[in-house]
Amino acid sequence: MLPDLFAAEVIALFLAAAAGWYFARRSQPKPHTPAKPLKVEYLEGLNFVLNEEPDKALEVFLRMVAVDDDTVETHFALGALYRRRGEVNLSIRVHENIIARPSLQTSHREHALFALGEDYFRAGLFDRAEELFERLANGSGRSLGALRYLLRIYEQQGEWVEAIGAYERLKYLVSPEYPTAIAHYLCELAEARRQAGDLPAARELLHRVRAEQRHFPRSALLRADIAIAENNAELAVRLCRRVVELHPHLLPLVLPRFMTALRATQNDSIASAFHDWLQAAPARRADIAYAAIVAGLESEPFVIECLRDFIRSDPNLGELVPALAGAPASLSALQLKSLAGALGRIFRRTHRYRCVECGLGSATHFWQCPGCRSWDGLSPVARLEVVSRASNL
């Protein structure tokens, strides 16, 4: 038996279909060949719905209601219903049936093409979806929605040049949902050129990023990577410090690069490099210890120096550690080192980042959330999370 909600939705659609059929029949001459009575077809289709035979129900529905400007909305509702249930093949049939009718209004035809593009997108047929949305993006009443879908297609396929073009077109219609998206597209291209060894091309792309977004942290980190590759460690250190000053939540991403650059300058003392941070409030020291452990740097000496503040600031560790090992102030360097290693192993088995938009947890940082596709949404999880097994059931 189908879920009650779905059955109710389909029954409502059939009622709408019956009304459409009735008014359509009243406005048409009586056909020479008698049609099957509406009541019989209605009951036949409803029986297929309730017995979970959507293909047969669809055939009845398409016979019942002629697609014209009076009944087309019922077909759109049925197609959307099938897509929501994941039966995209049936949704495609509904929308193709609408498009095949030559007498539809232009707005209805554009709606059907857009809905068919959504079907293809949902089915992962991105080439077909792209073709339809590109057609609709050129001057139709569905230009805005089509461009947004094109952006999603290009992002998911890593077609960053095409994404930049669609983004520029979208800007003429409305302010884009994610203003930093184009800067990320350019960074994706720059990272590809950097990995290919074409550093001048990567720098040129990053120069374009600065024109789009000032003080953009991702481009600064890429510039630091290039500086390290070119043995310009001093520049890399300055870039890393600047990112931390403007975007302290990205400290877990900055620290590995920072340590590499410091060692290249023959100065591996983060205490001197981050003197202001380490001498400031305990919260700053706790932030450094936490970020270093998240970044896999728990064996570094500076972590031990800051770990006591981290333990005190974390609500879970603040209770567990004193109960098991003693007050943080009394812990030896060996105990702190062992604790840092244990925390590192725990963090690597848990979600260290979470999207502020959709709540998706991830052990790896992404500039674009794999769940909701938002940009710059993932941030380090605030301290150690203790989650009961029951909550994950």
What is the total tally of β strands? Answer: 3
Spatial extent as radius of gyration: 30 Å
- Series of H and E elements: HHHHHHHHHHHHHHHHHHHHEEE
> Pairing-aware structural class of the strands and helices?
mainly alpha
Q: How many separate helices?
A: 20
Instruction: Let me know the largest β-sheet.
Output: 3 strands, antiparallel
Strand order of the largest sheet: 2-1-3
Q: How far do the termini sit from each other? A: 26 Å
Overall outline: elongated
Helical fraction equals: 55-70%
Low-confidence stretches: 386-393
Name the average pLDDT: 80
Strand content: under 5%
Task: Label this structure with key terms.
single chain; 393 residues; mainly alpha; 3-stranded antiparallel β-sheet; 3 strands; elongated
Plain-language structure description:
There is one protein chain. The protein has 393 residues and is an all-alpha fold. Among the domains are: 4-123, no CATH class; 350-393, no CATH class. The protein has 20 helices and three strands. The protein has helices at residues 4-26, 38-50, 54-64, 72-84, 88-99, 106-122, 126-137, 143-157, 160-171, 181-195, 199-212, 217-229, 233-246, 251-264, 270-273, 275-278, 282-294, 301-313, 317-324, 333-348, and strands at residues 353-355, 361-362, 378-380. The chain has a three-stranded antiparallel sheet with strand order 2-1-3, with no helix packed on it. A hairpin with a 5-residue loop joins strand 1 (353-355) and strand 2 (361-362). The radius of gyration is 30 Å and the shape is elongated. The model is unreliable at 386-393 (pLDDT under 50).
